[in-house]
Amino acid sequence: MSAKMSVLLSAEAAGEQWGKNALVTFEADGAVVHLTEENVLPSLQRAGRKLDSQGIKKVELAGEGWDLECIWAFVQGHRNAKPGNEVSWSGLSEADEAELQARLMATNWVREIINQSAEVVRPSQLASRAGEFIKSLAPEHVTYKIIKGNDLLDEGWNGIHTVGRGSERSPAMLRLDYNPTGNAEAPVHTCLVGKGITFDSGGYSMKPSAGMTAMKADMGGSALATGALALAIARGTNKRIKLILCCAENMVSGRAFKLGDIITYKNGKTVEVLNTDAEGRLVLADGLIYASSQNPELIIDCATLTGAAKNALGNDYHALFSFDHGLAQKALMAASDENEGLWPLPLADHHRAMMPSNFADLSNISQGDFMPGASTAAAFLSYFVEDYQNGWMHIDASGTYRKSANDKWAAGATGMGVRTLANILCDHEQD
C-alpha cells in the first residue's frame, strides 16, 4: 500500500521555478497548496482535482488552516468515480467532524447511485435502495411503500406507468414518510419529489447515441432529493418530511408509449404526448399530485429535466423555478450559505399557455420558435401542484452530472445541491 502524501497550505506564492501562479508545488515534506487568492475554496477544490489527476490517490491534510469548509472543498476536487482515493485529516471540533461526515455520507450515496449503470440501478431498485438508505438513518421514524407495475394503474398513477411500460423493468413509485414527531397525525412540513428515470433512450423520439451516454444519470433528481433528506436527518431536522420518487425506464418496444397518446391524470388533467423524450415531467406529475394531497407547507421537486436549463447555466448551477418569490429568495440564500450553485430562471403565468393541444388539456412540450424550454417544462409541472403559486419550487438539476472532467470536478456525479436542499429542509419556516 502506498504511503499518504502530506498536503500543506501556504499563503505565499510559489517559487519562480514552478511557473507563474502555480497552485500546487512539491517539496520533501509533500505537496503545498498556495492560496494567494481571496476566495480560497475554489482554489482548494482545484488543488484536490490536480493531485488526483496526477495519480496521487492517498493524501493527508496536514499543518494549519484546514477548517471544515477547506477540507470539504479539497475532498470535492480529489474524489472521483473510481474507488481508491483516500483523504485523511485531524483537528476538527466534534461538531465540525460530525457535519463533515454527514456531508460525505449523503453525497457519497448520491454520487455512487448516479454513477452506477442502468443495468445495476433499475426503477424498483432505485426506489428500494433510497427507502432503505433513509430508513437506516432513523429506523424508528421512517416508513415507506413502493408501488410498481400494474399496481400503479390501480392507484391512478398513469404518468409513471405510461412512461415505464415499454421496459421489461417495472416502473415504481416510492412513498416514504420521515416522521420524527411521534404523532401519526402530525402535519407534513415538506414533500420532496424526485424524477427517477433510470435510463432515458428518448423513447420513440429517440436520442442520438451521444445524447444517451449520460442517461444513466437521468435519475439524478431522485438521488438529489434522497441525499438532501439524508443530510437533513443527520443535521437533526425535527420536521415531518415525505419523499416521493417517480421511477421508470424510458425504452422502445411494442408496449412503449407513442406520440399522440393521451394520458389522463388523477387530478383530471389530460396530456397529449408530442415528444416521448419529454418524459420526466410526465412521471413527476404523478408525484406532485400525491405531494399536493398531503397538504404540506412546502413542495420541492428535483429533476434533470431539460437540456435548455443546462444550455443556460452549464454544469455549475442548478436552475431554480418558483412562482413564490419569497421562497425562491430563501432557496438562493441557502445555496449561498452552503457555497453551492443555484440560479433563478423565469417562470410566469404566460409560460403555462405555451403547451397547447388540439386533443387534450395541454401537450407535454412547448411549440413554436424560440420557446423557453426550461420555463415551459416548469410551467407544465405547475398544473399538477394544487397551489402552485405558494410554497412550491422546481429545481432543474443541471449540475448533477458531468460527462467530462474539468479543473474542479471529476467526470460523473457531483452531489451538488444536497447541502442547499438540506439547509432548506432544516431551516425553512412558512411565512
Automatic annotation (TrEMBL):
Alphabetized PROSITE patterns for the sequence: CYTOSOL_AP
Pfam family, one: Peptidase_M17
GO cellular component, one term: cytoplasm
SUPFAM superfamilies associated with the record: Zn-dependent exopeptidases
Single GO MF descriptor: metalloaminopeptidase activity
One GO biological process term: proteolysis
Keyword set, alphabetical order: Aminopeptidase, Cytoplasm, Hydrolase, Manganese, Metal-binding, Protease
InterPro entries, per database record: Leucine_aapep/pepB, M17_PepB-like_N, Pept_M17_PepB, Peptidase_M17_C
Residue intervals of the Cytosol aminopeptidase domain: 275-282
UniProt key word Nucleus: no
Protein family: Belongs to the peptidase M17 family.
Described function: Probably plays an important role in intracellular peptide degradation.
Protein name from the UniProt record: Aminopeptidase PepB
Organism: Photobacterium rosenbergii
